[in-house]
Structure formats: structure tokens, C-alpha cells
């Protein structure tokens, strides 16, 4: 069995795509996953599965579409995936508050991003992720997800650093 963090994109934000966490746990258990738990209300779950990450994500997306009648993108990340993101943290020297440090996971490859299009002191493109330091708070910082969606045509899902650390601690081992 492999432990996964399952991240749902864009649910329970501004009253859109409402998914109760109890319903999400039930849906994941109904798919045959074990050790299912949810964290917070923003579409974070952990589980154990005998499937590859892409298969877990696809099955969860299909089940969500069937149940809710709308597309909800999903990423399934292993403990190793999350630890690699944590270890590669390029803004560690300045980002001293986990609630103001954001990681955006990309739902597709980045071609060649224009360096001039991002504030390189606060926004760094990594391997399949974008790290963003928001010293004035997330709501007072550039909306990198919207930029990436518009300019690079790639969807993202983001979590703050505190949530990343909670997911690492919660993944079944």
C-alpha cells in the first residue's frame, strides 16, 4: 500500500463546488481506499491505495463528477512527492511564516515561462510547482494561480506551507 495526499482543486471556495468532507471520506472509502482522513475544509484527504498516483487521481475525479455533476480536478501525491517539494523550498531564507508561504501544484507541464512575468524574489517556478512568498498575506499578494491559468493555460491547486506540513504528517505510512 502507498500513502497519498489527495488534493481537490477549487472546492468550498466562495461557495463554489461545495463538497462536505464527510461526503469526500465516504466517496474515497467507497472507491476501496483505506486509512481515509480529511484535513481542513478545502479538499485535502489522505489515504492508502494499491494504485499508481495517476490512477488514484483519475478514479477520484470520475467519482466526483458522477456524484456532483461537475469537473473537480484532483492530484494524488505520495509522501516522497510532498517531501521533495518541502526539501526544494527555494524561499526558505525569507519565508518565515507558513501561512504566508504558498505552493501551487501544476496540472500540466510548463513550457518556458518568461522570467520577467514573475517577481523572482517572491515567486519561484520549481519542478511541477510554484513557490510563492506572500509577506503581506495571501489576499494581498499577486494571484499567481490566475496568471498561470491565463498566460500559461495550466490549472493549479495551492496549499499554504502549514497545510503541506500537516499533509506530510498525516499520510499513511
Automatic annotation (TrEMBL):
Domain of life: Bacteria
Protein name, as recorded: DUF1697 domain-containing protein
Entries under PANTHER family matching the protein: BLL4334 PROTEIN, DUF1697 DOMAIN-CONTAINING PROTEIN
Amino acid at each position: 500500500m502507498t500513502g497519498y495526499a489527495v488534493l481537490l482543486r477549487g472546492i468550498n471556495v466562495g461557495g463554489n463546488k461545495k463538497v462536505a468532507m464527510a461526503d469526500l471520506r465516504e466517496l474515497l472509502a467507497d472507491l476501496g481506499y483505506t486509512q481515509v482522513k480529511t484535513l481542513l475544509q478545502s479538499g485535502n484527504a489522505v489515504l492508502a491505495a494499491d494504485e499508481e498516483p495517476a490512477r488514484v487521481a483519475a478514479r477520484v475525479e470520475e467519482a466526483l463528477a458522477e456524484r456532483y455533476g461537475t469537473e473537480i480536478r484532483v492530484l494524488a501525491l505520495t509522501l516522497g512527492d510532498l517531501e521533495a517539494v518541502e526539501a526544494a523550498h527555494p524561499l526558505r531564507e525569507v519565508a518565515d511564516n507558513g501561512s504566508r508561504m504558498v505552493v501551487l501544484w501544476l496540472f500540466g507541464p510548463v513550457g518556458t515561462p518568461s522570467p520577467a512575468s514573475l517577481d523572482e524574489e517572491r515567486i519561484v517556478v520549481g519542478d511541477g510547482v510554484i513557490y510563492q512568498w506572500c509577506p503581506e498575506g495571501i489576499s494581498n499578494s499577486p494571484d499567481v494561480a490566475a496568471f498561470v491559468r491565463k498566460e500559461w493555460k495550466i490549472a493549479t491547486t495551492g496549499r499554504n506551507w502549514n497545510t503541506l506540513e500537516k499533509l506530510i504528517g498525516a499520510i499513511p505510512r
